[in-house]
Amino acid sequence: MAESTIKILLIDDDYVLRKGCENLLAGAGYEVLSCRNPEEGMRLLRENDFDIAVTDYQMPVMNGIEFMRVLQRLSPQTDVIMITAYATIEMAVEAMRLGAFDYLQKPFQPDQLLETVRRVVQKRQVGKSGDHELKFDFDGKTMRIIGKSKAMQQIFQISHKVAPTNSTVLITGESGTGKEMIARAIHAFSHRKDKPFFAMDCGSLVETLFESELFGHVKGSFTGASETKHGTLELADQGTFFFDEIGNISLNVQAKILRAIQEKEIRRVGGTDTIRIDVRIIAATNQNIEEAIQNGQFREDLYYRLSVIPIHLPALRERPKDIPLLIDHFVSRYNQKRQKKPIKNVSEAAMNALLTYSWPGNVRELQNVIERAAVIEEGTTLTIKGLPEHMVQKEEKPSHTMISMAEMEKAHIANVLDSTNRNISQSAKILKIDRKTLYDKIRKYKL
Ligand SMILES: Nc1ncnc2c1ncn2[C@@H]1O[C@H](COP(=O)(O)OP(=O)(O)OP(=O)(O)O)[C@@H](O)[C@H]1O
Ligand SMILES: [Mg+2]
Questions:
Q1: Structural domains of the chain sorted by starting position, each given as residue range(s) with its CATH number in brackets
Q2: Which of 239, 209, 243, 246 lies closest to 224, judged by CA?
């Protein structure tokens, strides 16, 4: 998208400021229409399609929050940048909660305005192509799964493809890689989207309780069963049922789940009637199920039933390409909660630390690290001061030292593995090393 196709509405009653911004934006190649007050703004909004509205918070008749509300009705696709005086900063933050993209505090430098506009444009491009995220509505909220690595791109495609079917899906991956998010996306893209999505952590209850939770029980079937109870599988009828941590289920309950999937019916604990159920099953695990099968802890037949469509989420360290995007995503999310000025960039040293860390807790850990940094950081740049100590190397690095050779090698190998779908022969050929050396390096760097 050429920048000149971006259309901006500018509302401010301060003539000097308005003309200044108008010239600046027009000079940068944007198409700009400007006006003095929200009423004129509304008229222009009705007659034009704006990508961005830059508007003063404090205006006669209508303040920025009220303006946001009207704009969201009139032109929901327009992104808002709020201009605010110091006194109304809290309100501008409130406007961001309502969906404004960012705010600028007066007096601001021309560069700040251009930079903010550029970020909106960037965000819109990503959103438009849908390339680097999987976006869906769940529970009335918009969720975004971020990823441009080949592995994640393929997962986005598969999720779309399997969603309309009733096939069971088995999602594997380390803790925090986004298994539950993918399960929700599949539900959201399916015809079951307006029906329940039930998630059950299979390790959270002792066997008997788990069984009665899942299948329900009839009155008097055991001590304490004073009422007949519907099981969650029954309550999820016509919806999607997500078995989280399926590897924690006992062999006894595994048999019952297998029967429920095969027969499409269940029996309450202590009951004799069978109840028809129509649920789509998605399961997830961070354990090695094949190993559990070998050890006799998991039924092979259930495994085959569940893994009709297998989806493996790679660990974050295996897809370093996704890290900068995820940082952007979480930074803008926590900016909205921040009572201070939003974080606008990440220092080189902090980016290096974030890119080379091994992320044992995967995306969840990255999310927590960014949230913490957004709290600690006083300024608008995220620096290593905001990162947990164990992520930052002890020795003081000169500010423009790049990463070490080993770190570079590791990141490069991870990228090549990702681009070949972890095809070892192909990766070894690209890297011009033999397969054994590649295996050694994969082990060494825990890729
Ligand atoms: N690709 C992604 N883009 C954006 N957010 C993500 C992504 N992957 C994970 N997250 C976020 O990370 C957190 C963990 O995701 P999720 O609960 O889906 O992981 P999980 O694999 O089910 O983890 P666990 O095995 O620990 O249950 C969530 O808060 C989610 O919002
Ligand atoms: Mg989970």
A1: 3-129 (3.40.50.2300), 135-313 (3.40.50.300), 317-391 (1.10.8.60), 405-444 (1.10.10)
A2: 209
